[in-house]
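Q: For a teaching session next week I want to show students how multiple molecules come together into a single three-dimensional assembly. I've collected the sequence lines for a complex. Could you give me the predicted structure tokens for the whole thing so I can convert them for display?
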Amino acid sequence: MYKLILKMAWKNTFTRPARTLLVIIMIAVSMSMMLAIQGLYDGMVKSMIEKNKRSASGDISIYAKDYRLEKDIKYSIKDAAKIKEDIQKLDGVKAVVLRVMADGLLSTARKSSFASIHGIDLKEEERFGSFSEFLKEGKISFKKRGSVIGIELAKTLKVRIGSKLIFSTQDSSGEINSIALKVRGIIQTTNIVLDSNAIFMDITSLHKFLGTPPRDATQIAIMGENQKLLHILKSNYQNLDVKSFLELQPMIKQMQEMMVIFNSITFLIVMSVVFIGIFGVVYVSILDRIREFGIVLGIGMQYKYIRAQIFLESVIVGVFGYVGGALLGLILLIYLRDYGLDLSSFSDALEMWGYEAVIKGTIKVSYFTTTFGAIISASVLSVLIPIRKIKKLNPIEVIRAEK
Amino acid sequence: MIKLESVNKYFYKDDPREVHALRDINLIVQEGEFTLFNGPSGCGKTTLLNAIGALDSIDSGKIYLDETEITSLDEQARTELRLTKMGFVFQSYNLVPVLSVEENIGFIMKLRGFSDKEISQRVLEIASVLEIDSKLKLMPNELSGGQQQRVAVARAVAAKPKIILADEPTANLDSNNSQILIDMMRELNKKEGMSILFASHDELIMNSARRVIELNDGVLVDDNKR
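A: Of course. Below is the structure for the complete assembly, covering every listed component.
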């Protein structure tokens, strides 16, 4: 019997092809837009997280106790090089780097600004987070007192490639000391703090300048994201401050949560469109066929078959809309993943907030599975009211009405 | 056997527009009868047919189909009764537009759970009697009015119900097609042995019916067996 019901539902769905097609297109277009927005939202956050991890914190960062409260080199991690060697032996660790950081004053002949100097090992940073990919201008080189400066800081100080700078800070003996640096490269990490405050130089030279032991560091950054690793590190280094990325970047965690809310709102809007679309087409279709339903009820067709038929009609429209939306959405997402959405006109504002001017989308299977579930649910829910109308239908009224 | 005991039916009961549509009807219809409810428009013949067909409720009295008192059944049981014991032919054919002639004829049998083989055999058999066997693959909108009504009759009789209730089946047909349809229904009545009850004021049906029950203002005024 259900084969016949399916056949009736199928044929009824396409009795008025233009109307049905319109709803299918409406579902497909709104769903593809939703998938694209979802991909872009996730892509934005993912890119921000990835760049933050690569340029700053890694998946896990270790500091000396109190360092994050008072960023002073006296709170360096003692013999960080040994700790690094030990950490590299742990399961799940992809890369480990040591960094030394000190706050001070960065000056040109005409301007000066507060800045943080970062001592890094370029080869290790390349392995850790492809540091050279952040290069915007010039080259990544620390030779001959070379340094690399954040793009916003370069703008503030009005420096260019080849400009000379003086960085002054308190060294390990408490004396104010200065070092002359030359700008070799300008980088843009989209990490607001680094872009507007950081200048990078060779870690060994910085140790010498600060007078700190060469095996010490202010930060050990680790790539290797898993909760088990975090747990091991926290338990192995209880005398140090071991933090996960999200613990160090609560703003990004909030942003992720915001994106979930944005996605949910978009999702809700699209599902409402699907619901209203299907509801409209099914309700009108039922009104068109009210006499037919009355008659078949009159001749003995059970209500359950009519209900099944209407559910199937709605699900057929929903599934077609879903397939169209999934295909269109996939094409959009592939485009956004490969080429991104170019918002260069708003680049200043976007970069200020840590976003790239070209936003690239992500593709997750969960977009499609969740949407499928939601569209089928919307299809089923949208026919509840029309079905109630049929349930209340008295066949004799239909039969009387036709005379 | 259908038995009616003191059946009364009102429309707009306890309202200034109240109509006493059936007044104290007592009637017995034996199996295999070819009966016509006749009378002027508004006399209650369709209301009586609908009450017998468990489509409409009554206000007092009892209607029995064999041993079953149908007026006290709930809606689901009435639907089941209509499906298993009755066949309906309406004035406006009311075929399922998205199903072929073959599927329309077999529709009730399908609802009753007959096998596909049984359905196709019976559809072919009944379509031959009604001379629509060449139209089985067509859709209802590809048929003339007379052909559509024959399909409606075929659908009603296919599952071999005990009673066929036909309300003004010839109202939309010309006299030629009406006569063909009545002859075919008489043939089915003879061959299949099912009771056929008409509500109509068509002269052609009156001439063919073996029993004519006259109604006037909801009252059974004459019962003429031939």
